[in-house]
Amino acid sequence: MAETGFNVPKRLRRAEGLLRHGGHGGDRGASYDEGSHDVGNLARHTRMPGGPGGAMVPVPVPVLIAALLCICAFLLVACDTSSSASVSSPAPGASATPTTPLVEAHTYTGPPMSEVLQNSALVDLAIGASSEGWAVGQNEVILHLQGGRWYVEQAPPGGGFSGSNSYLNLVATAADSSTGSESTEGIEGAAEAWAYSNHNALLRRKGGRWETVANPSQATLSDLVVTQTSDAWAVGKIYGGVMSSKTQGASMYYGAGSGRWSVVDLPSENGSTEPSSETDSVTPSELAVSPSGATWALAGNVMLRADEGTSRWELLTLPPPVTEDRLSDLAFSADGTLWVLGDKAIWRYKPSGEDQREDQGEATPGILWERFAGENIESTLERWRGASLSVSQDGTQAWVLAFARTEPGTFAEQAFLLLDLRSGKLTQVSSPSDLLIHDVEWAAGGEAWAVGGSGQRGGQGIILHYKDGEWSVYEPTK
Q1: Which of 57, 122, 234 lies closest to 460 in space, CA to CA?
Q2: Contact by Cβ (8 Å): 349, 364
Q3: What SS3 class is residue 87?
Q4: Nearest Cα residue to 261 out of 215, 223, 229
Q5: What is the pLDDT of residue 192?
């Protein structure tokens, strides 16, 4: 069978089981499976050559017998090793050091960007306050946004990449990219950035150079953020062995002062961080950094918070009106308001001068939860299911990347929904492309960028630019 694609990027994974690639090539949509709570990866959906209706190819009996013998031998080895290494993680405090020499990012001498995008779908996107950003995707592609233009950057060697199915599926930079110490002149840029590959490798960019950093955790990461002080957080899952379906949450913290990644314990839903066979830890999947520098994590219907400069999670219990919804993403506006995208509503978590009364649904003293009222939010969300949320730098607008509500297993159309955070109106904005969009982020001045592409290996990638009220396809200059 032909493999088809890559892990569902974090922005689409935030739909928590919403999306499954339905073999529609590069169409801007996905098949929908509401019953699933683990999106997994697009490669699960494979087909024989000839398209969705291709005929099954009979396999000779001797080949089947040989394959079964190989599988049995593999399972015996897996069983022997899984007894001593089922679901585990490195001890807290484990560190990571560079494993490859620094590589000048702009010494790239490969094919021009137009050719790169013909063969590599883009998976994730991160943009800082100065509109400097990065996009990553298939074939270890790294693109750098500087001065309104995109450039291809050179990935470091030895980054854990293996074969033609290698890709980067996470990238992050600080919301305030002025934290870099180098000059912002030239395409090298000043901001630091981190990236993560499907082979569990962490890449760091500093001073215009990329390096590979050893990952102290065996977790498969789902999100990665960088704070204003160049600290970083990553969260994900550790999967059990071949014979186990058990998973556990995982998180890591990078301290800019120490220059090391450390594994950080996660609390259970009762707030304890002590190991327990009866109470599992929460599993955070999405991250956001507040203007004050605190990092917040969404873990199902609970939240975690780590204050700036600390590597300890605090458990925050959400009030019943919020927990009755299915939460998929979170983002901050410049005034410190936390916006949370749900299945039925958009929620606002705003500091309050007075404690909430218990009958109003108290979450944490001094914090007010409320359903964000708008003229058509609920009616729009009845048709569209939100997968990701991105708030503009001035806090007046937000993008909701959404999919049409359809019957399970059927094709779901994708849409850009523009949310006015002053009036609460949701407006659909047309896309100039039929390719699936994987992420959308705001830049300065009310502009935005989006990346995506076909889910097929070697599929086409695309960059969209939002300016003056409409999306357009970005055309590389070379």
Answers
A1: 122
A2: no
A3: coil
A4: 215
A5: 84
CA 314 – CA 396 distance, rounded (Å) = 29
Q: Contacts from 339-345 at CB under 8 Å and sequence distance 24+?
A: 339/372, 339/389, 339/391, 339/398, 339/421, 340/298, 340/389, 341/14, 341/386, 341/388, 341/389, 341/400, 342/386, 343/381, 343/385, 343/386, 344/378, 344/381, 345/371, 345/372, 345/377, 345/378, 345/381
**Short-list 163, 224, 221, CA closest to 192:** 224
Spatial separation of the C-alpha atoms in residues 306 and 114, rounded to whole Å: 41
Q: Any idea what DSSP says for residue 434? A: -
- Cβ neighbours around 302 below 10 Å, total: 18
Give the closest residue to 440 by CA, choosing from 428, 452, 430, 432: 452
Between CA 206 and CA 105 the distance in angstroms is 9
342-363, pLDDT tens digit by residue?
A: 999 999 998 654 333 333 344 4
3-state SS assignment for residue 401: strand
- What value does the mean pLDDT of the chain take? 75
Residue matched to tokens 């074939």: 139
Determine the Cα–Cα distance for residues 252 and 200; give it in Å rounded to an integer: 13
Q: What DSSP state is assigned to residue 165? A: G
Per-residue burial over 407-445, b if 16 or more Cβ lie within 10 Å, else e, is eeeebbebbbbbbebeeeebeeeebebebbbbbbbbbee
Give the 3-state secondary structure percentages of the chain, helix then strand then coil, rounded to 5: 15, 40, 50
Position 446 pLDDT exceeds 90: yes
For residue range 40-96, list pLDDT tens digits in order: 232 222 222 223 333 333 444 444 455 555 555 555 444 444 433 333 344 444 444
Phi-psi sector, 193: left (phi>0), alpha (psi -120 to 50), beta:
beta
How confident is the model over 136-173, as pLDDT tens digits?
A: 999 889 999 999 999 999 888 765 555 556 789 999 99
Selection from 124, 210, 6 nearest residue 440 by Cα: 124
How many other C-beta atoms can be found within 10 angstroms of the C-beta atom of residue 157? 11
Tell me the pLDDT tens digit for each residue of 361-387: 444 444 588 999 888 999 999 999 999
**Residue 106: DSSP 8-state:** G
CA distance 409 to 263: 38
DSSP 219-234: -EEEEEEE-TTS-EEE
Q: Which residue has the higher pLDDT, 167 or 276?
A: 167
Distance CA 221, CA 434 (A): 28
